[in-house]
């Protein structure tokens, strides 16, 4: 059963999927319509999941489920991933690449690259400890609401990719 993310508790589990490129408005609308339709009928072991989906920062699809009402199962998560894979094919974009790193460039635009390219940007000085990065590995809606999706490299796991030791300013 689909509900707005605002209706879900802080403890709701989240999955965040970033697109490898900005989506045009019709693509974004198609993606979100498809994900809403999926969430409307999403079940785990026959129990309807209380879940929501939202598009954030014009680059990320957020899917959240209130596991207090019914927990997502391995099979239900697999169904979500299959749906996202089908959307990738239909839209010609990548959503499931867990190696992609997202950051804001100096102009404020969100960029995405693989980890090797991120390391190279850090080595060249284009990525510094204050560069905002996005952490799609956050697990709870409370983290999203607290602004933990976007934070400086120095306060993120991304710091290990820069070659800078933790705590260095």
Residues in β-strands, percent = 15-25%
Which consecutive residue ranges, at least 5 long each, have pLDDT under 50? none
Shape: globular
- Average pLDDT for all residues: 94
Number of helices: 5
Question: Sheet bearing the most strands, described?
Answer: 4 strands, antiparallel
Using the CA coordinates, give the radius of gyration: 17 Å
Strand order of the largest sheet: 7-6-8-9
The number of distinct β-strands equals 9
H/E topology pattern: EHEEEEHEEHEHEH
Q: What is the end-to-end distance?
A: 46 Å
Description:
The protein has helices at 25-40, 74-91, 115-124, 141-145, 159-162, and strands spanning 13-18, 43-44, 47-48, 51-56, 60-65, 101-104, 110-113, 132-134, 150-152. By secondary structure, it is α+β, with helices and mostly antiparallel strands. A 4-stranded antiparallel sheet has the order 7-6-8-9. A 3-stranded antiparallel sheet has the order 1-5-4, covered by helices on one side. A hairpin with a 2-residue loop joins strand 2 (43-44) and strand 3. Helix 1 (25-40) runs antiparallel to helix 2. It is globular. The mean pLDDT is 94.
């Amino acid at each position: 059963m689909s509900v707005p993310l605002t209706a879900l508790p802080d403890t709701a589990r989240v999955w965040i999927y970033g697109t490898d490129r900005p989506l045009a408005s019709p693509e974004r609308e198609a993606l979100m319509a498809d994900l809403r339709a999926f969430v409307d009928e999403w079940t785990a072991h026959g129990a309807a999941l209380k879940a929501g989906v939202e598009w954030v920062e014009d680059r990320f699809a957020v899917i959240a489920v209130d596991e207090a009402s019914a927990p997502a199962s391995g099979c239900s998560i697999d169904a979500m991933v299959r749906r996202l894979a089908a959307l990738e094919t239909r839209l010609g974009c990548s959503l499931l690449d867990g190696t992609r790193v997202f950051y804001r460039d100096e102009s404020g635009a969100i960029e995405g690259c693989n980890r090797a390219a991120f390391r190279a940007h850090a080595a060249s000085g284009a990525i510094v400890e204050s560069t905002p990065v996005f952490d799609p590995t956050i697990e709870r809606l409370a983290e999203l609401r607290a602004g933990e999706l976007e934070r400086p490299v120095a306060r993120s796991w991304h710091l290990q990719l820069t070659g800078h030791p933790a705590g260095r300013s």
